[in-house]
Structure formats: structure tokens, C-alpha cells
Amino acid sequence: MTLLSETTSRWSGARSRYLRALPITALAIDIAIMVGIGLVAIVGRRELDIFTSSADVESSVTIAGPLIIAGWIATIALTGGYKRDLFGAGTDEYRRVFNASVIAAGLSGVGCYLAKYDLSRGFFLLAFGLGIPSLLVGRLLLRRAVQQARKHGSLRQRVLIAGSRSHVDEIAAVLRRETWLGYEVVGALTPEYDLAEETGSGVPVLGNTTEATQLVALAEADVIFFAGGSVGASSQFRSSLWELERHDVQVVIAPSVTDISGERINIRPVAGLPLIHIDPPTWSDASRWGKRTFDLVGSAVLLATFLPLLLFIAVQIKVHDRGPVLFHQTRTGKDGREFSCLKFRTMVVDAEARLAALQQEIGFSGGLFKMHDDPRVTAPGRWLRRFSLDELPQLINVLRGEMSLVGPRPPLPHEVETYDDRTSRRLHVRPGMTGLWQVSGRSDLTWAETVRLDLYYVDNWSMLQDLSILGRTISAVLGSRGAY
């Protein structure tokens, strides 16, 4: 253990300095934005002549401006907007900055009124009207920079996971998959009865859960996750918390609950017990009139918008080999009902006849069949697939009620025959033209990852999530990631 401490202490110290600099960086960005927006508000008030006022803008802002900025920063700080564990994930950061900004605006207005200070109303509206969204954009850009740095190995936090080996592996798999979270698993702590040297996924076991305090210090850990099986009683866990509070380490409780959106989780303390309430899955909401109306209007508008492009593509396909323009393929939709899924033909006419030979050639074992440089793809088909333009005729399927704009990938009937009870949940909602599977990598995803994303969508559907996926689809299509 001494060797572990010696080899990590220098790197850990440099890493910790970078992590501690995140709140200072956010503070500097906020101040720069506030000052910049303040100057814009002064010029805008003078040039646009918003509201008539006897006050001279420059003279009134000279006194009030610095006080407003100081109060604004102080309000964000008091509401926890600069806490170190706030950066990089979740919506809490944006919520705190927004709420603090609204409070600062209210206090500034009330303060000027009570003090009978003649602050320009035009300046006030411009400063906060432009400042609040600018602060949120600044935090968004900082988050993107932090996440990119974490993906490349910087700004990462060393993590110990305490619990049974199966629970450790479950948490470690999520942290390894989501590299943008910035967690680096350095070891596991298992119960005393477990004498294994590593978990099934290869996480080294550094010691027992009862030695958490000593091992956190020796491993130079920034975070310790307490997963299932980590403690035997609440009193033992409380003692561990008391001991860990002497160290600069973040304690995280990781219950055996995964792939559930935050909107479905509510923590309600009852008699000292932090009970986690999980709302039922929302897949039934995805079949209601609101989503169907959105699909009808959206598909009709998109068909009218893309009509010239659809005609151009049809001509290109027909001219290439004189074959049919559309490809009809039987797919399985909501509740197992089969339908004819429409796509622009991107393969040679006898593509289905060649499929078995190709599957045997590459050793295909099941799931979704995709391969790089498929010899059956035609010349027009390559660029159609690259930008997912071959799927535009599915807008007709959306109009007919067989598909949705957003949803799980429409499976083939022979794929559905292999589904277990868990995977069959994908059929609770209409399949979609796009979905989490597409904006997360498309054909680069494994079959297991595709199923996991589809099930997450089914269980955690919301209209806001649909809108977010549609927005992310544009960048995914333009980037052509996973398209072949």
C-alpha cells in the first residue's frame, strides 16, 4: 500500500489542483460575462432608447453596476453555484445559476426602489435579460470543455468502489462507459468474507470495506462509492462517514438502480431514512395523443419541406440501375404488429439473396446485421446511408401511424423471435425514425448497447427527451458517425 501511495501522490496532487481550479474558472467566466453584458446593456440602452428616463445611464451604472455584479456573484455562490462537485454532469448547475440570477435581479430591483435610486430600466432589462442566458451558455461551454478533457484523460477523479464484487462490477461498467463523467476506478473494497484479489471485470481489490478510511488515504482517492453489500448495518455506515469526514473525499451512495431518469426518482426522508421513490415507467405516455399529434404535424411538415430532395433522390436511384426506387421491408412495430417499412433502395436488387453468404463469411451470430463496406451497397446508396437520407420515406410510415419520429429501432421479425422478456419491452411503443441508438453511435454500437438505449427510452419517455433527440440527430447525421 505504501508503494501505491508513493506512485500516485505526485500525479494526484497535480490532478487535485486542476479540479480545485474549476470553481475559480467558472467564477472568472461569470464575471467576464457580467461585465461584457453590462457594457452591452449601457450601449443598448443609449442607442435603442429603451424607456425614457431622466437618469444618465453611465453615471447611474458607475455606482450600481459593480454592486449588482458583486451581489449577483454572491447570490450564485450562496446557492452553491461554485461547488466543486457540481461541474460536468446533471442539471443542478444550470438550475442553481438560473435561480440565483432571478433572485439577484429581484433584489437589485427592490433595492433600487427602496433606496429611491434612479437606475435605468432599459439597462436593468438588458443586463438581466441578456445576462441570464449568457451565464447559462457560459456554463454549458465550460461543461463541454470539462467533458472533452475528461474523455482525453484529464480532470479525472480517482474512485474506490465499496461493495460486493457483483455490485462493484455493475458500477464500474457504467463509470468506464461514460468517460465524460471523469471517474477513474482505481480499486474495490469488498466485505471481509470475500478474499478475492480482483472482481470479475478486473477491478483490483485493495482491502475490506471496514478499512475504507485507511484505504481512501493510501489510494489517494477523490471519491468513494458505497454500493450494495458495502456495509452490514446503518450504524456501521454512519461510523464510516464520521471517519471519512476527516479526509478530502466525496462520498457517493450508489444503489442498485440503473438506467432510470432523474424525473422518475424522488428522495423523501422519512424518520431519518432517505427513501428512494421510483415512479412507474412512462412508456404508456409515449402512445398518447400528444406524441401522436406531434408525429402527424412533424411528418407532414417534413414531407412538404423535403419533397424536392425526395424527387431528386428517386431520380438518382432509378437512373443508376433502373431498379425500384423504394425498398419495402417487413418490420415489427408496437405490440408486435408487423408493417411494411419504407426506405430508399441503397443496395443491389438481389441484396436479400446475397445476405446468407455474407453472414456466413463474417461469422454473424445474431442480433442486428451491419458490416463496413457492404459489397451490396450501390453508389447512390453510399451517400444516402452516410447522411441517413435513405430513411426519409419512413415519414410516410409515421403518417400512417406505424412509426414515430422518435423511438426504438424498428426490428426485423426474425430478431423479435429471439427476444427475451426484457428485450420485448422495446415493442411497448412505436418504433422511431431516430432514437437514442442513432444519436449515440448508430451502427458503431453493439447489440447489447442498442437494446440498453432502447429500453432506457421506453421506460423514461418524455416529450423533452424527444425534442432533445431530434436536435442531436442533426449533428449525428451531419457527422456521419456510425453510418454505413
UniProtKB/TrEMBL annotation:
Compartment list: Membrane
Q: What is this protein called?
A: Exopolysaccharide biosynthesis polyprenyl glycosylphosphotransferase
Look up and give the organism this protein is from: Nocardioides marinus
Tell me, in one coarse class, where this protein mainly resides: membrane
Look up the domain of life of the source. Bacteria
Q: Membrane topology for this entry?
A: Multi-pass membrane protein
Does Transmembrane show up as a keyword for this record?
yes
Q: Cell inner membrane: present as a keyword of the record?
A: no
